[in-house]
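note to self: dont lose this again. the chain is below, predicted strucutre after it. 299 aa total, dont forget to put it in the shared folder this time
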Amino acid sequence: MIDPRLKEKVALITGGNNPFGIGAAIARALASHGAKVFIHYFRQPAELSNEDKKTPGSQDPGLAFFFIQQGKTADEVLASIRDAGGNAESWEGDLCKPKNVDRLFEQVEKAFGHVDILVNNAAEYSADTFLPIDASREDMKVWEGGPTISTIDVTSHDRHFAVNSRAVAILMSKFARRVIDRQKRWGRIINISADCAWGAPMEISYRASKYALESYSRSAAAELGPHGITVNIVSPGPVQSGYIPSEAEAALIKDIPLERIGQPEDIANAVVFFASEQASWITGQLLFVHGGHRMTIGR
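---
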């Protein structure tokens, strides 16, 4: 087994409260290699459709199940890490609010003293479009049984960019200053983007804000490299974090050469690699982890 040399490193992972989610899988994976992990999270109330409200206790993947998981604290994830012998703490804050971006590092440093690895995983997602909404149109769906779509407005635009790009940029800047001040010349930033970030109908603000994240990441890689900080991007394809209904999963698999939906652990493995000593001469890279999904849908 390759040793990524992460023992006693301190990792901050944003968006890690969903036990079935990517953030939780990243936290567990880093902790399994001896890193101390600090999980940020935010429980955002979700608007469920009337159909989803009929099955609030469902254990089947879908929006109702997903929103239940997203509404949890990070306690379940913390317990799984601690039960396995890991060291983990958490804090809740809405990254849409600039003061919480400032406070996040204060909370991590209170718990562990400093941060070596920053994983920007938290994301704002709602489905929006340039088109006027007509509920009778069957083609205006992200996927069968997917989220309600709205026409883009100031709120949908600004919240996506506040969380998915502005918070990421500010967190990277604050992280860089701390690493430079410590004069350790070792730091890792791994930002989680999204397949099709260059643009996708019906998810226009989410995809655009992730594309901005990618641009910030490449600029950061160029500027921070001389200080020993690498910056890389992981771009997941369809990953089952609890939100994809079984019927939609079957349809998505048709466009994936490896013939399965991704699991959160697939993304976590890529993050561990970018954080590892083995990736010390890799920076500014975008790694698609999607089973070949992007090759089949074109650009």
